Amino acid sequence: KNEVEQSPQNLTAQEGEFITINCSYSVGISALHWLQQHPGGGIVSLFMLSSGKKKHGRLIATINIQEKHSSLHITASHPRDSAVYICAVGNTDKLIFGTGTRLQVFP
Amino acid sequence: EAGVTQFPSHSVIEKGQTVTLRCDPISGHDNLYWYRRVMGKEIKFLLHFVKESKQDESGMPNNRFLAERTGGTYSTLKVQPAELEDSGVYFCASSQSLNTEAFFGQGTRLTVV
Q1: Hey, are the CB atoms on B35 and A97 less than 8 Å from each other?
Q2: pLDDT, tens digit, for every residue of A5-52?
Q3: Contacts of residue A99 in chain B, CB cutoff 8 Å?
């Protein structure tokens, strides 16, 4: 069992839908990161959080430290949101990654 | 400000050959990380430099992999001799200090044939 589990692995949505990606972890963490990777592109950091909730535009990330769970929400999804979304946790000096969630948003 | 840059973006080599990947971190970032994603798997940690020192190399798969960061600036990751299972995407990341936001490069896609 991976130390960081994401669900779902694949997700398709119609433009405008509300999207939720979940991440659970089993190790102690200093912070949790949500990352985005477009096809053929590099990895971009979306959020780094250690408690509560953060919002940036249409993206919202929440974390529940007691339950070791985080969610990434996308409101009013758009085809340009199509990408792989990766959850990673900071553990000692390194990141431990989930396998990623491949999101496709259709017009 | 330039981001993390990696070179080359793609490399195709034959089994048994040597390949050297390079990473230029963001200027002033003491922490430099190498990660790797092999086909179908999650991204895994390889090693962590603080300036020119190897802080943690627990993720290096075997002694065919050698990472250096002379002078504490750019880093190289050499694979010698390359094997088929080394194929994957190698990512470099840098951060200003421990447990702050890490910035990733575009990755180097290595294919060993």
Answers
A1: yes
A2: 999 999 999 999 999 999 999 998 999 999 999 887 889 999 999 999
A3: 41-42
